[in-house]
Design goal:
mainly beta, 6-stranded antiparallel sheet, BPSL0067 family protein, Dae2/Tae2-like
Length: 131
Amino acid sequence: MRHILANATTYSRKRFPNAKGHTECVEFIRQTLNAPNTAVWREGMKIVKVAPGQTDPVPPGTAIATFVGGRYPQHGSTGKHAAIYLGQDASGIQVMDQWNSQNQVRRRTIYWHPHSGGLSNDANAFSVIEW
C-alpha cells in the first residue's frame, strides 16, 4: 500500500533530524508518515516517465525511494534515497526531500537523465514505498 503525505510542500525548510541530530532522507518519511524502519519497506510501483496527455498513476505526496532487489538498502551511506513525490515533467520528477548536507526539506527536480550522483539522483531509480 502506498502512503501519501498531504500538503507536502508545506514542509519546505523544516528539519526532521534523527536521534543523533542528522537530517537523513528517511527521517522525513518516517516522521511525517509514521513509517516503520526501512528494513520493512518494500518496492511498489516504479516511477516511470508519463507520456504527454497520459495521467500520472502516482499521486502527489506519495513516499518514494530507491530499491535494490525489492528492498531499501540497509548498508552504506550512498546510492540510496527517499523522498516525497510531487509530480513530473519532461526533465524529471519533482520531490520534497532532505539529506545531511542540505540540513532541511526542500523542493527539487531529480532528472530522468542525470549527469552524476548515482541512484539517488536518477528519477528512473525510484519506486513507491510500501509497508
